[in-house]
Amino acid sequence: MNMTTNMRPVSSAALKQAVEQHLTYTLGKDAGHASVYDWRMALSFAIRDCIVEPWFRATRSTYEGQRKRVYYLSMEFLIGRTLEDAMINLGLLEAARDVANEVGFDLREIIEDEPDAALGNGGLGRLAACFLESMSTIGCPAFGYGIRYEHGLFRQRFEGGQQVETPEDWLTLPHPWEFARPESAYEIGFKGEAVDGGWRPAESVVASAYDMPVIGWQGRWANTLRLWGAKPTTLFDLERFNSGDYAAAAEPEALARTLSRVLYPDDTTYQGKELRLKQEFFLTSAALQDILRRFRTEYDDLAKLPTKVAIQMNDTHPAIAGPELIRLLTDVHGMEWSQAQEIARATLGYTNHTLLPEALERWSTWLMGNVLPRHMQIIERIDDDHRRATKRPAHVGIVRNNEVQMGELAFIMSHKVNGVSALHSDLVKKTVFHDLNEIHPGRIINQTNGVTPRRWLKLANPPLATLISDKIGEGWIGDLEQIKTLEPFAKDADFRRDFRAAKRTNKVALSNWVGETMGVKIDPDAMFDVQIKRIHEYKRQHLNIFETIALWHNMRENPNAGWAPRVKIFGGKSAPGYAVAKEIIHLINDVASVINSDPVTKDLLKVVYPPNYNVSMAERVIPATDLSEQISTAGKEASGTGNMKFTMNGALTIGTLDGANVEIREQVGPENFFLFGLTADEVVKHRRNVRHARDAIEASQNMQSVLQMIVEGRFSPSDPDRYHGLVDRAWNHDHYLVAADFDSYYDAQRKVDALYLDPDAWEEQAVLNTARSGFFSSDRTIRGYMADIWETESALVGEESLT
Ligand code: TH1
Fold first, then answer.
1. What is the mean pLDDT of residues 253-278?
2. For 246-254, what is the mean pLDDT?
3. Which of 183, 327, 396, 545 stands the most exposed, by the fewest C-beta atoms within 10 Å?
């Protein structure tokens, strides 16, 4: 087979030769003895070779065209696997399949040998990964900057139904996608003292670069993800070593390595730990030093920085960028204060991802002053300037109650602040940044999140992707708006049958995997009802499991009432220190073991919770889903992005008017979306009634039975008191209004049942969901950032399409 990419023709034979070369000369392995790992490495190197040329070309074109670059600063990049994604974007998947077959391996097995790069917790990190891919697809010159954590997000196991964490070790084996750049290294200081107009740090480490190329669709452009690893400034204390104190001799090294050792496993909460603040500064300072160094090789006037550089802060985690940029411009490059402030502001943008109070970063002035004394001075001056310029009282400032408010700092130091869905951006204006929005009208804008259709449709769902391409051509992959031309086929019975068949293929594959890995038999013809995301009270996995219990109870009472057979699928990790979330996990697993062994409901209901949910598991589960659970308390989920992936893959959604659900419902049509629950406004009003939960439970027979069964120990017979705390909270501390929304949710689920029992009607709505998902491509989101925040243009405009 002859595949052509734009950099060189790659036939199966040529690829095979390249793979064998790497096997022999890079890995030193004889084909006769090569393992799946060896073949994966050889194939990865061969594919990586194909990226290098477009990567160089993109870099050269950016320099030659003196183009503006975007720098995306993020503490998290949740990449998942790279090999298959790269092969798809280069058009080499088929050639690779041929090669694998010829050497006696299954390509799937090789692909699945790659560990996930889990350098993120959830949506925020995965969004950063989708953005990188979209920036490369669009040809937006960009760098991602992050930390090369030795240990990504912990692995999850269940023991007796409870979450147990073990360390993740993706870097134990060599990582074929990175290029170490020891020559790109910067010193990062900490502590010490501020000395007039400068800083004398007491400690320092070196940030050393590792680059990963990010290839866009059809290999037309490639950007760089640059991850920083921490190294000691002095490797070794020779004096101490010679005196026999071996442990102390290695101290500088140990100290530095802790900085990039491990990702903090908290999603939407922060702990205020010194090491975290140091990590944030480590990333930010390394990135800014690198950005200024690159700028100065090309331009002589730092005043031009905002015309050639746009820096985006992914939440407040890199918000120290404001003060650090000012410090570098003034202390290091001698610029005057007010000009430096202006230039920093024109260069920086800030994305807010949450309104949850426990997520809003605040550092005590003591800690900030101790770890970053010079920055503390600069923050106070920014704050003073802002107060004076806007004549505002102390309560709107950055420093309040002896704490540095990182949201306020990020806002004041940015020219644009954006929320991540229409509802969320609206709430940002009305709540956390109400006063700042009045002082700076127009600064807050919205950019609704998106996801890349390359990974989340083409890669994850080959049966559906092939069906779509057969019908409307391949244009949708690079321009998801084109998927709307599928719409008329919703009325075409043959197409609906094929659409259903594609879904069924995915459901069979998932059923087999669940059977093999968990030993639970599930029926691919039952409705697959899925909630996969971090476990958090506001996401309300407990609402889902309560409804599951009510459903089971009612099925038992009346097994022949025409229930739609269901498989409830859960996936997700809890932060290790989040006891309430861990209790919810335990309950789900306990409920699963009781329900799954009930002979009465064995053909009607199953509950499965595969451990260690991650990007690769999402790729497996989402294409096999019929019903997507997006049931957060309205006003709490800033956007959600899983919701978009399900819609693209033809799942129907049951959801609240929260985050991007609102826009999903608008796009797919309210008649194709199962809505329930209070609105964000109603939630606020409802909470004023201190009896809201008690009133709702007393009015709901269903909810009462559920809580009764749990408190009686029906799901924990060996430990009947296990859930007394959980049930007490449901009655008395129901902050997320599970009780108030319960009946509405239960009723909406029965409408779901009715539709599922009418396959034709279901499939019509499913097709319309896919056909109307064009808005949710991260390509659209990135174009929005480019136009409204970064003021950059694609380097590929006017270039011929290579299809
Ligand atoms: C998530 C939001 O919860 C989610 O609604 C949104 O879709 C996603 O970001 C992308 O915009 C967030 N993740 C984090 C993680 C940390 C701190 C704040 C947030 S908000 C560590």
1. 93
2. 77
3. 183
d(CA 721, CA 713): 6
Has 353 been annotated as catalytic?
A: yes
Q: Which pLDDT band holds residue 1 (cuts at 50, 70, 90)?
A: very low
Task: Assess whether 526 and 595 both reside in one domain.
Answer: yes
User: Among 73, 124, 312, which residue has the most ligand 1 atoms within 8 Å of its CB, making it the best to mutate?
Assistant: 124
Q: Which amino acid is at 100?
A: A
Q: Which of 317, 539, 729, 780 is catalytic?
A: 539
Are 544 and 624 contained in the same domain? Answer: yes
Contact 480, 774 (CB under 8 A): yes
Residue 240, CA atoms < 13 Å, CB-side half-sphere: 12
ipTM: 0.99
* Structural domain range at position 507: 496-756
Which residue's CA lies nearest to atom 7 of ligand 1?
A: 640
Query: Is 469 domain-assigned?
Result: no
Q: Are residues 418 and 547 in the same domain?
A: no
| C-alpha 359 to ligand 1 mean position (Å) | 9
CA of 743 to the centre of ligand 1 (A): 28
Has residue 243 got a pLDDT over 60? Answer: yes
pLDDT above 70 covers what percent of the chain?
Answer: 98
For the stretch 759-793, pLDDT in tens is: 999 999 999 999 999 999 999 999 999 999 999 99
Which tens digit of pLDDT belongs to each residue from 537-546? 999 999 999 9
Of the candidates 149, 146, 182, 184, the one whose C-alpha atom is nearest the C-alpha of residue 167 is 149
Q: Is 641 a catalytic residue?
A: yes
* d(CA 14, ligand 1 centre) in Å: 43
Q: Is 268 inside a domain boundary? A: no
Confidence band for 391, pLDDT divided at 50, 70 and 90: confident
| CATH number of the domain within which 515 lies | 3.40.50.2000
Whether residue 533 is contained in a domain is answered as yes
Unique residue bearing structure tokens 């010159």: 141
Is 533 one of the annotated active-site residues of the chain? yes
CA distance 593 to 580: 20
Can you spell out the DSSP letters for 593-619?
HHHHT-STTTTTEEEE--SS--HHHHH
Count the Cβ atoms, other than its own, within 10 Å of residue 25.
Answer: 11
CB 43 within 8 A of CB 96: yes
Instruction: Give the end-to-end CA distance of the chain in Å, rounded to a whole number.
Output: 17
Residue 238: predicted pLDDT: 72
Ligand 1 atom with the shortest distance to the CA of 122: 13
Residue 7 has pLDDT above 80, yes or no: no
Residue nearest to atom 17 of ligand 1 (CA): 268
DSSP, collapsed to helix, strand or coil, labels residue 192 as: coil
Ligand 1 atom closest to 126 (CA): 10
Q: Identify the pLDDT of residue 2.
A: 36
Q: State yes or no: pLDDT of 389 exceeds 50.
A: yes
Q: Do 577 and 429 share a structural domain?
A: no
Return mean pLDDT, the chain: 96
Task: Tell me, yes or no, whether 502 and 378 share the same domain.
Answer: no
- The model's confidence at residue 252, banded by pLDDT at 50, 70 and 90, is confident
- 259 vs 276: CA distance, rounded Å: 8
Which of 354, 533, 538, 664 for mutating ligand 1's site (highest number of atoms within 8 Å of CB)?
A: 354
The arithmetic mean of pLDDT across residues 182-197, rounded, is 96
Quick one: which atom of ligand 1 is closest to the CA of 641? 7
500 shares a domain with 443: no
CA of 576 to the centre of ligand 1 (A): 18
Protein residues whose CB sits closer than 6 Å to any atom of ligand 1: 121-124, 127, 266-268, 315, 353-354, 359, 420, 449, 637-641, 659
C-alpha of residue 353 to centroid of ligand 1, in Å: 5
Among 40, 533, 586, 606, which one carries the catalytic annotation? 533
Lowest mean pLDDT among 12-21, 270-279, 391-400, 461-470: 391-400
CB 140 within 8 A of CB 786: yes
Q: Where are the beta strands (DSSP E) in 428-489?
A: 444-446
